[in-house]
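Notes to self, Efflux RND transporter periplasmic adaptor subunit:
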Amino acid sequence: MQKILLFTAMLFFLFSCKNAKNAEQENEHAAHDIYYTCSMHPQVVADKPGKCPICHMDLVPAEKKKNADPNALQLNEQQIQLANIQTDTIRNGSIGNRIVLTGILNFDQTKLETVSSRVAGRIEKLYYKNTGDFVSKGAPLFEIYSEELNNAKQEYLLALDRKNTFIGETVIDFDQLLESAKNKLLLWGMTEAQIETMIKNRKASPLTTFYSPASGYITTLNIREGDYVMEGGAVVNLANLSTLWAEAQAYSARMPDVSAGTVASVQIPDLGGKIIKGNIAFVNPEISADTRINLLRVSIPNPGNALKPGMPVYVFLENTQTNALSLPIDAVIRDGANATVWVQAGDKTYKSRMVKTGVESGDRIEILSGLNEGDIVVVNGAYLLNSEFIFKTGADPMAGHDMSNM
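result:
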């Protein structure tokens, strides 16, 4: 009887040890479903609590997910807060094709005036000697000594004296002779008032004053006092600043949206961001073969001459508003011809999805395909998610994008 009791006790002991061992194995297996990592350095992984060897922060527990999607990225609450991950629900809204170009203010070439000497001679006096000086229309510009012009003056006075001397005693038509001599003086730049003064005084001055035919600022002063100028030689260049050109460059791909006469907005940063409306006055028909860039000019008014050539500007071209899905530009990760966004696929779980983009307007971009209205999209922190995915998996998230909605 004692042997039977001893044998029974031994069997009970063996079964107890086996059950304890199985329980210990189960606990150990369960423990392996939990690991510890650093929220700042996810590459640090440990099987028990401790400190991060890099930043010395406490390791946080993380649960291993069975059958997890290899293309998804799961974060804990602390990682989401540190990365400032923010999401928004995509909806339909109004968006326009707004083109933003950089440019610079320049002279309106249609309002430039070159004042030339109509006769050859020596410049004896310049009334304006500095570039940037403003010249009013009709103001004296320079005095010139010209042999040809002085001879023409003498011829006119001589014809006038002959007419008064031979009244009714000659067949010569002095009126026609005087008219021809006067027209010659007018063509060479003298005014009616100067001719009348010469007739009144019966004397021709050796110097002739020439007056400005237009108002404007001197942009180029081609001569100095004492210089000899040829007939037709430029003396000064004048620029009327009542209107200016905002010259901007656009890539050839955007040119279908640009045409002469289109209304544009020109922003001047140097004047506190002031915006002036204008019309596209010129679109260069020739495209640079090297840069594929085209030139366009927007004519804008310049009341009070507050705008100066050389000021940097932004040119905004607005096109028709359309109703479409749109996102903040920073939510879209673009790599060459591809574009992806991160969508929320579950609780603290995010997945990369390829999209097709359209026009840009301000800080938003149109989504043509790849997303549906109501999808929750990461609008802040998308680039951090992208980097985290590459760091953890060593793969480009585009390799696992969802093509079902494309």
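- The chain has four domains: 24-64, 72-96+321-400, 99-108+241-319, 112-239.
- The first strand starts at residue 34 and ends at 37.
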